[in-house]
Amino acid sequence: MPHENPVPHENPDPAAMREQYRSTPLLEADLAPAPMEEFARWFQAAVACGLYEPNAMVVSTATPEGRPSSRTVLMKAYDERGFVFFTNYTSRKGREIEANPYVSLLFPWHPLARQIIVTGTAARVGRDETAAYFRTRPHGSQLGAWASDQSALVDSRETLLHRYESLSTRYPEGEQVPVPPRWGGFRVTPGTVEFWQGHENRLHDRLRYVREQATEGAESAKGTAEAWRTERLCP
Ligand SMILES: Cc1cc2nc3c(=O)[nH]c(=O)nc-3n(C[C@H](O)[C@H](O)[C@H](O)COP(=O)(O)O)c2cc1C
Predict the structure, then answer these.
(1) Is-contact 104 59, C-beta < 8 A?
(2) d(CA 167, CA 223)
(3) C-alpha span between 76 and 141 (Å, rounded)
(4) What percent of the chain has pLDDT over 70?
(5) How is 34-87 classified by DSSP, letter by letter?
(6) Which numbered atom of ligand 1 lies nearest the CA of 93?
(7) d(CA 17, CA 13)
(8) Dist. CA 10–CA 5, nearest whole Å
(9) Whose CA is closest to atom 22 on ligand 1?
(10) Among the four residues 20, 48, 79, 101, which has the most C-beta atoms within 10 Å?
(11) How far is the CA of 204 from the centre of ligand 1 (A)?
(12) Rounded to an integer, what distance in angstroms lies between the CA atom of residue 47 and that of residue 32?
């Protein structure tokens, strides 16, 4: 559960904050053949540890001029194709992805001394996939998706609440809320996936999967073990 009303610490010193990470080494031989399989193992472990919101990930996008921006979103699905999140297509991130599909994802699993960093490209999921997920959202979140023109300026909180209230009169609890046309999912297809495991004395493990360019006639290797090579990076 999140802290509802955090009380500020008087004088925290970030320079004095230092943890020693202790864990078993991450070895090449233990890696799954494909990164999404390895991701599934790590995600299952994060859930089993009771990590708070293990599906929260930082998505970084960039304008075509290379100006980056980041924000947290919730991963709502993953499989061998990649990672799915839902958002407003006209938000800052939505617009940046439309103009430049290259993105980065980061899962910051600090309590496990782990992080996963993905680079790849994002593309809209099909409308049927968006609709299927939208139907699973609570009624209030469905209305919220309509009420918020995400990333646009708004003059006050009252304006938002007012929009929400008029929508809840139009679509009372129990009534089906249509899927907002400007809202939906993006799937991130990974090009690289780095698994980072912290260790003592900053001798961390960094193992990265890199998608091999599929050569002609090797299409069948796409998405399978042969399509990925792994490499170790200095911490
Ligand atoms: C834990 C957490 C989860 C979030 N999940 C989502 C999400 O799934 N989709 C989304 O659009 N925004 C989500 N947000 C809000 C975004 O971080 C961000 O404020 C919003 O999407 C607007 O970003 P943009 O203006 O850069 O496009 C989440 C924020 C936090 C802190």
Answers:
(1) yes
(2) 43
(3) 14
(4) 94
(5) SHHHHHHHHHHHHHHTT-SSTTEEEEEEE-TT--EEEEEEEEEEEETTEEEEEE
(6) 27
(7) 7
(8) 15
(9) 151
(10) 101
(11) 30
(12) 19
Ligand 1 pocket list (CB less than 6 A): 53, 56, 69, 71-74, 85-88, 91-93, 150-151
Q: What is the DSSP string of 139-172?
A: HHHHHHHHH--TTS--S-HHHHHHHHHHHHHHS-
pLDDT on residue 1? 78
**pLDDT value at residue 219:** 52
Residues 141 and 126: their CA atoms lie apart, in Å, by: 20
And the tokens for 104?
Answer: 């980065």
Whether 202 is catalytic: yes
Ligand 1 nearest atom to the CA of residue 56, by list position: 1
Statement: residue 178 has pLDDT above 60: yes
CA separation for the pair 234, 224 (Å, rounded): 26
